[in-house]
């Protein structure tokens, strides 16, 4: 089995439905290009005469657009860059940290990754969009949902400072969960 002999790049991309692994094989003698997302083959091209170019595919439940750019650096050296939604991976992740909050927690021996999309107030848990119920409370809002048999809510409170905006806090079984840095 010659699988993964031409592996030239691996990226980890954190999206609302989870962290996805993108692997890219580039056979510089055969021109072969193979893209794997989470171990599943998405694109396979054999015998490409052009060794530079791009491959575009989707990642995750929301079918987020991803592009691998193949550029010649010098002679037979190549550079591989990943773009998500038309932005470099670095730019995309920086922007994402402004538009989402992520919490990682363990409940009854199971690990959970909870993501809040601030623009839509959608809540994701381990790759699934949760059913939520929003309510107004004295100092802000609460978005309620359930994980297993645990009651959870995300509290949104104004920081009182324009630059900071709204502070989101995840509460599970009446205890505050610290935010994860991805």
Write a compact overview of the structure shown.
One of its GO terms (cellular component) is cytoplasm. It is found in: Cytoplasm. The chain contains 1 helix and 17 strands.
Explain what this protein looks like in three dimensions.
It is a single chain. This protein is mainly beta. The chain has two domains: 7-85, Lipocalin (Beta Barrel); 97-177, Lipocalin (Beta Barrel). The chain is 6% helix and 61% strand. It contains one helix and 17 strands. The chain has one helix at 89-99, and strands at residues 7-15, 18-26, 33-37, 40-45, 53-59, 64-74, 77-84, 87-88, 100-107, 110-117, 122-125, 128-129, 133-137, 140-147, 150-158, 166-172, 175-177. The strands form four sheets. The protein has a five-stranded antiparallel beta sheet with strand order 13-14-15-16-17, with no helix packed on it. It has a four-stranded antiparallel beta sheet with strand order 1-2-3-4, with no helix packed on it. The radius of gyration is 20 Å and the shape is elongated. The two termini are 35 Å apart. 16% of the residues are buried.
Detail the topology: elements first, then pairings.
Elements: E1 7-15, E2 18-26, E3 33-37, E4 40-45, E5 53-59, E6 64-74, E7 77-84, E8 87-88, H1 89-99, E9 100-107, E10 110-117, E11 122-125, E12 128-129, E13 133-137, E14 140-147, E15 150-158, E16 166-172, E17 175-177
Antiparallel strand pairs: 1-2, 2-3, 3-4, 5-6, 6-7, 7-8, 9-10, 10-11, 11-12, 13-14, 14-15, 15-16, 16-17
């Amino acid at each position: 089995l010659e699988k993964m002999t031409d592996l030239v790049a691996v990226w980890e991309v954190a999206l609302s439905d989870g962290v996805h692994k993108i692997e890219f094989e580039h056979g510089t003698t055969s021109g072969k290009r193979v893209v794997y997302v989470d171990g599943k083959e998405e694109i396979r091209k054999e015998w490409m005469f052009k060794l530079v170019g791009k491959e575009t595919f989707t990642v995750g439940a929301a079918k987020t657009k991803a592009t691998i750019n193949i550029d010649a650096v010098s002679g037979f050296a190549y550079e591989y860059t990943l773009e998500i939604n038309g932005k470099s991976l670095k730019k995309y992740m920086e922007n994402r940290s402004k538009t989402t909050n992520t919490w990682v927690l363990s409940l009854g021996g199971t690990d959970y990754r909870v993501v809040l999309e601030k623009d839509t107030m959608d809540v994701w848990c381990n790759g699934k969009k949760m059913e939520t119920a929003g309510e107004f409370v004295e100092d802000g809002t609460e978005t309620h949902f359930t994980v297993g048999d645990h009651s959870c809510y995300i509290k949104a409170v104004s920081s009182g400072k324009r630059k900071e905006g709204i502070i989101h806090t995840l509460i599970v079984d009446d205890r505050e969960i610290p935010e994860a840095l991805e």
